[in-house]
């Protein structure tokens, strides 16, 4: 979506002001949450551990009392009277013991004393299949599941064994009231809503502040949920976790194990109360953030208004300068960076105008000069060297043999492809030798060497260029002939004085040469056969002695007086002709 400058700056400035505040508030809240969570975990863990220690102490006292029911001289030899006396004393010491049963090594009941039921002596009842008798054979102390009785508090069974020569002599089975554990759990206080409860290994409630919930502990669905909660607490490693209680309220929960019995004390507190200080901090942070938002909006509005005016002027100026109005100037007087930016825009416009003029001059020069030569003339800043003047030049003409016949029958795309390959190859060589391409028409080229920029040994320079042009074109011709195109390539070079300069009008001008040397080079090119590079005597006599050329004799050319001695530039190994004869001298003078 496109927005105005004012809208953009308002949004940016507003975001720049408000985001750090928001980030600070969020960061502070995050750290506060971590700290509050750590404090809460420590508090709840302390309560749970304290309760678990008390329950451990209670169970230890019961184990100690039950251990005292075993006579010192050996349980298998003790009389029933002696066993009864020891059992009654243990029940008197620990009111939480509801009943005690003693079963001998064969599983026969010897004694049963109960606070609520009938006592039995030497009943001989077979209790070998009793879970407590079976369980105590594999565990030093065995704890049974919770026993629920209508109208009474729940209880749990504890069993211990006495040994005689590593053989179980008697099993002591006690039914223990869970009321003392309920009293321990009821004392847990964490805030207003915090409470604790105890579950056994199967997930059933052993103790809860609400005794009615313990009586409902046999519910398997509730036990499954408590087992999952116990596993989650154990995985947290003492850190408080978030969960939902039986009333589906969000609570924070920790636990501590009762190792002796395999139980777990769980302490929970509602999240609303546990994180009340954090919520209050959030409200304060939100209020401060709201005030900061209002202040940031006012400040952003004022700054955006102050900045949008000059920037709109800059935008308008940039559009005009971009459209080519390099004489446009941006006037801003703010005394700050925007004013300096406007000055830079104005300076850029001036430099662009200068660059445009230079590019236009360079484009005009590159129409007939090699890029390097055009750059040289442009950098000199003086185009007077392009004005009409007399200069000794080497005129180079070239064209394709058989091209007229080929173009009459070739498809347009094939014709243009051949010309494109031809000009790309020769253009690279002309640029390499910094020669001046004055004109080209169809397959014919006219090139000048030594004008407008002079070079050393122009004749040798031109011949080397012609040899490279011939070699490069012959490579193309080899491929063309494979496609069935009968085409050749010939060249003509002549050296002499000519009038050179720019000819044309304001919108179109070319750099060219006028004189007999141009006509002679053109005639030589027309006379050249495929692979030939024909040169006149003036070119030949300026070549070094190791340059292989062949004297082809004199020829008469249309439009030229007298006969012209013609030479062909050959491959290495040809015998060089004598260039000092009187005939040659006479031709040079003529």
What does this protein look like?
By secondary structure, the protein is of the alpha+beta class. It has 16 helices and 19 strands. Strands 12, 13, 14, 15, 16, 17, 18 and 19 form an 8-stranded mixed β-sheet that branches. A 6-stranded antiparallel β-sheet has the order 3-2-1-6-5-4. Strands 8-7-11-10-9 form a 5-stranded antiparallel β-sheet. A hairpin with a 7-residue loop joins strand 4 and strand 5. The chain starts with a helix and ends with a helix. 33% of the residues are buried. Residues 585-590 have low confidence and may be disordered. It is found in: Cell membrane. Pfam families: dCache_1, Guanylate_cyc, HAMP. Residues 1-22 form the signal peptide. Residues 394-525 form the Guanylate cyclase domain. It is a multi-pass membrane protein.
List keywords for this structure.
590 residues, Nucleotide_cyclase, HAMP_dom, elongated, membrane, six-stranded antiparallel beta sheet, 24% strand, transmembrane, alpha+beta, disordered C terminus, signal, eight-stranded mixed beta sheet
Briefly say what this structure is.
The chain is about 50% helix and about 25% strand. By secondary structure, it is α+β, with helices and mostly antiparallel strands.
